[in-house]
Amino acid sequence: MGNRYFVSSYPQINYYLLYFAVRVSDQTYCAEYETPVLDEIDDLFSAKDKDVEFVLKGKSITLRTPKGRKRKARLVEQKQCNRAEHDAVELQQHSQPRRDARTGNDFVG
Q: What is the count of structural domains for the chain?
């Protein structure tokens, strides 16, 4: 007779998923950020309606928050941000992206 309830000696870790958009002129990048740390979510919310520096590389975006921390997120389809619009953080950037001559990545900042 076995135990039908699984019991672990390790605590369960909850992960939080945040969708956010970064707007550069007429281009909008939608990303998702997953973390078990609520302070990291607060850090992203602190960037709402502020100019931020970010780097696009492949299917990821790394942005520097107003507190100086880097947060790396995965780019997703625009509809993901539209679905979560009421929870989304819109980060605005007013400068044009430029290409990093050393790495070849798009860079804004």
A: 1
Residue 108 lies in a domain: no
Question: Which among 11, 19, 10 is positioned nearest to 89, based on CA atoms?
Answer: 19
Provide the residue-wise pLDDT of the chain in tens; the chain has 109 residues. Answer: 455 665 667 777 888 888 888 888 888 889 999 998 989 988 888 888 888 888 999 999 999 988 899 999 999 988 877 765 544 344 443 334 444 545 555 544 4
User: Is the whole-model pTM more than 0.90?
Assistant: no
Domain span holding position 90: 16-99
Residue 51 in any domain: the answer is: yes
For residues 70 and 90, give the distance between their C-alpha atoms in angstroms, rounded to a whole number: 17
